[in-house]
Structures are given as C-alpha cells and as structure tokens.
Write a structure and sequence with these properties.
Layout: E1 4-9, H1 12-22, E2 29-34, H2 37-41, E3 45-46, H3 55-64, E4 69-72, H4 75-80, H5 82-88, E5 93-94, H6 98-105, H7 107-117, E6 124-127, H8 130-138, E7 144-148, E8 157-160, H9 163-175, E9 184-188, E10 193-202, E11 206-208, E12 213-214, E13 217-219, E14 223-226, E15 231-234, H10 241-261, E16 267-277, E17 280-287, H11 294-298, H12 306-313, E18 330-337, E19 347-350, H13 354-359, E20 363-366, E21 369-372, E22 375-379, E23 382-390, H14 393-404, H15 420-426
Parallel strand pairs: 1-2, 1-4, 2-3, 4-5
Antiparallel strand pairs: 6-9, 7-8, 7-9, 10-11, 10-16, 12-15, 13-14, 15-18, 16-17, 18-23, 19-22, 20-23, 21-22
The structure holds adenosine monophosphate and glycine.
Glycine binds at residues 154, 214, 229, 287, 291-292, 294.
C-alpha cells in the first residue's frame, strides 16, 4: 500500500516539498494542510480547514487519515511542539521537537547555545527595555543590527547605519510594538556574502544539502525593508560539496552533538544563515526548517528520494550511509509578490499567464494564491515562485525571468537581480 504523507503549510516551500515528494519512486499518497491553490492543482488533496498552526487539528487529521509521515514546513508549529504532539499519538513527523526547535524560536537561546559550543556568530547584547536599549545605543559602534526576539518571518530585523536610525528602530520595537511584546537583540554588523546552508539531521549527524543564496530585501541592489525572501538560487559559486561538508562540521555538527548530549536530539532540517566574513563563516541565524524560498531552488536539483531521506531523519542515526545526489544544473527562483508587500499584501488580484510560464519550461510554485470563481487570484504577500533550471546560472536565470514575465497581476513586484552575482562569478 502506498505511504500516506501529510505536508503541513501552504507556501512556496510546501509546494516545492510536495513536488519533490511526488517524484519519489515510492509513489506516496500526498495530503496538504492547509495547502494552496497550486498544491491542489497538482491533484494533492488539501485540508483547507486544518491551519498550519492548529496543533489539535493537525493531530486529529493525521490520526483520522492514518498518515504514515507528517512533514512540517513552517517554524511556528514546530516551535509550538507539533512533532511532540504527533509523537504522543505514535505518528512519525519530520522536524525537530519543541525543545530542539528553540534554536529558531528564541534568538537569545540560540546565541547562548552557539557561545557554549563554540559556533562562530556575531557578538550581541540583549536589550530588555527601551531605556537599556537607548543607553546601549549611545556607546555602540555603527552600523549595528537590531532583531526582534520573536518569530517575525524574517521581517523583525532592522539594520541601522547610525545612532539616529537605531533610536528610531528602538521606538518601533518598544513604543510602537511593531513586532509585539518582545525583547530585542543588538548585534554586531557583519560584512560578506550570505549563504544558506541547510543540513539534514537525524539526531546524530548533519548532512549538508546543496548550498543556496537568498535575497531578503524587497528592492534590487538589496535596498528597502527585509521580506520573507524575494528569490534564491542554487548551487553557490565557491561552495562545492567538500566546502559544504567542512562548513557543516564547523557550524551544524557542534549544535547536533550538544542537543544530543542534552537529551533533546535534533531531527529535521537545521538551517544555518551564514555570513562568509573575512574572519571566516559566522552564523546570522539558525532556523528549524527548510528555507523559503531556498527550498524552491534546492529541491528541484535533488535526485535522491526525498521521502526516504525525510523518513530516515526521523529515526535516531537513521541517515547512516545516506548520500545525497544533486543535479549539476543550476536553479534560479524569482518570487512574485503582491502590491504593498512586505508591509501589507493585496488579495483578490486576478493572475494570468501561469500556464504560459510553465509552457516556457519553468516550474511555477504557488504561495499566496487562491481560486475565486474559477480564476486564480492573489491571496498573500508572496504570491508565486518561478524556478528556471539550466546548465549555467545564466541559462537558469534567463529561463526564470522569461517565464516570470509571462505572469501578470495588478501590483506585481519582483526583483530583477536574482542570481546576478552568480552569473557574474561563473559567467553566463
Ligand atoms: P535574520 O532573520 O537574522 O537572518 O536576518 C535577516 C537578514 O538581515 C539577514 O539575512 C541579513 O541579510 C541581515 N542581517 C542579519 N544579521 C546581520 C548582521 N549581524 N550583520 C549584517 N547583516 C545582518
Ligand atoms: N529564506 C529565509 C528563511 O527561510 O528564513
């Protein structure tokens, strides 16, 4: 009988997970909760009433449908303990337990853990209230980075070139409460190239996935506010398999070892957001899940059976001997966002041209889309992800943009410089 797999979430990352699971030779039966219009369009049954953060509903659905494996996409249910809740019912789930997911849930905890096990990261101070914050800002050296100590989908970070802008940011955090009731981390500003290195963990080992780079700012040339991510590409020039393994040994491995020793072993994806500085790699953040939009560029390149890897990762030491096989092709993902993103988003704008983009040879993954009276419409900030593949970064990029330009909706926003760096380095 085919295995039944339930994917939690409804963004582009989850659509990429569904596509990769669908390629498994085990031919699993897939369900998604809540899923999205694109996932449903692939013939996957979606459970729109089961919200990605509704732990009771997720457990009930997994039981009722006798699911063999739950694959959790977003961080919020992981941090809230969905894997523990499922385990209590005997249901296997891919992702860290609540205790292990704290590495993303609390920046202060992650920083303390990194300090303890010697993983390099930006130096930091915790700002508990407005008065301490203002006092610290007076003696800081600029630029500095301020981060809300809550899950803020990548948007809680403000980079401050000088004290005036930092004081303004402090008012946003502590007076305006733009990110809710939260403490703030003040961090040293790091310079260098960013790298997203995700590792597959089975409680004992950390096997690096293909490296990727993402684009966090809304506008070309890294201008404007941070978003959830406006595009990505994989692989990354200069980071070959050997270098990725070295980085995983230096960055991921000490974390996995420490958590195993402490009785909260790490299973799932451990995502390191790195800055490759002149003094070596330093961690900007750890996430407890696949990256979005990195996954949309990484998974299309995976030739191994993703279902097998995810299942093995749920078992202690289950990845012994696992080898990940990657296509030599490059993948470039361009995000199409709706009007107003990231401050707001626009819903209900009619989307045209998805079929034409697919016919042009790109993969179109849905995020904030919905069906209304038979038409595809926008339903969130990040709307669609268009991934092009090719033998060079230039070819992949051209294919992604040619297809993205065939998709139209009112207020569409996209960056024009995704993977431009890779093309510069490697050649078109
Ligand atoms: P985070 O959510 O912590 O990954 O931060 C989001 C983005 O802000 C990162 O991808 C970087 O582009 C930027 N950023 C975060 N921390 C730093 C830092 N210490 N120095 C420079 N840039 C940073
Ligand atoms: N792309 C950034 C993230 O997934 O957190």
């Amino acid at each position: 009988m085919a295995k039944r797999v339930l994917v939690i979430g409804g963004g582009g990352r989850e659509h990429a997970l569904v596509r990769a699971l669908r390629r498994s030779p085990q031919e699993p039966e897939l369900l998604a909760a809540p899923g999205n219009a694109g996932i449903a369009g692939d013939g996957v049954e979606c459970l729109p009433d089961v919200g990605a953060e509704d732990l009771d509903a997720i457990v009930a659905a997994a039981k009722e449908r006798a699911v063999d494996l739950v694959v959790v996409g977003p961080e919020a249910p992981l941090v809230a303990g969905v894997v523990d809740a499922l385990a209590a019912e005997g249901i296997a789930a891919f992702g860290p337990t609540r205790a292990a997911a704290r590495i993303e849930g609390s920046k202060a905890y992650a920083k303390e853990l990194m300090r303890r096990v010697g993983v390099p990261t930006a130096s930091h101070t915790l700002l508990r209230d407005r008065e301490t914050a203002l006092a610290q800002l007076a003696c800081a050296s600029y630029p500095v980075v301020l981060k809300a100590d809550v899950l803020a989908a990548g948007k809680g970070v403000i980079i401050c070139p000088d004290e005036a802008s930092a004081r303004e940011a402090v008012e946003a955090y502590f007076t305006e409460r733009r990110f809710g009731e939260t403490e703030v981390v003040l961090e040293e500003y790091l310079e260098g190239e960013e790298l997203s290195l995700l590792a597959l963990c089975d409680g004992e080992r950390a096997i690096p996935m293909a490296p990727a780079q993402d684009y966090k700012r809304i506008f070309d040339g890294d201008e404007g506010p941070n978003t959830g991510g406006m595009g990505s590409y994989s692989p990354v020039p200069g980071i070959d398999a050997e270098r990725a393994r070295e980085l995983a040994e230096q960055i991921h491995r000490p974390i996995v070892d420490a958590l195993r020793r402490e009785g909260t072993p790490y299973h799932g994806i451990l995502y390191a957001g790195l800055m490759l500085t002149a003094q070596g790699p330093k961690v900007l953040e750890f996430n407890c899940r696949f990256g979005d939009p990195e996954t949309q560029a990484v998974l299309p390149r995976l030739r191994s059976d993703l279902l097998d890897l995810l299942e093995r990762a749920t078992r202690p030491g289950g990845l012994a001997g696992a080898e990940l096989d990657w296509s030599a092709d490059w993948a470039v993902t361009v995000v199409l966002a709706s009007r107003g993103y990231p401050a707001s988003s626009s819903k209900g704008d009619v989307i045209r041209g998805v079929g034409a983009a697919e016919a042009a040879g790109a993969e179109v993954l849905h995020a904030g889309t919905a069906r209304r009276d038979g038409e595809l419409v926008t339903a969130g900030g990040r709307v669609l992800n268009v991934t092009g593949m090719g033998p060079t970064p230039g070819a992949a990029r051209e294919r992604a943009y040619a297809a993205a330009d065939l998709i139209e909706f009112d207020g569409r926003q996209l960056r024009r410089d995704i993977a431009a760096r890779a093309v510069e380095k490697v050649g078109a």
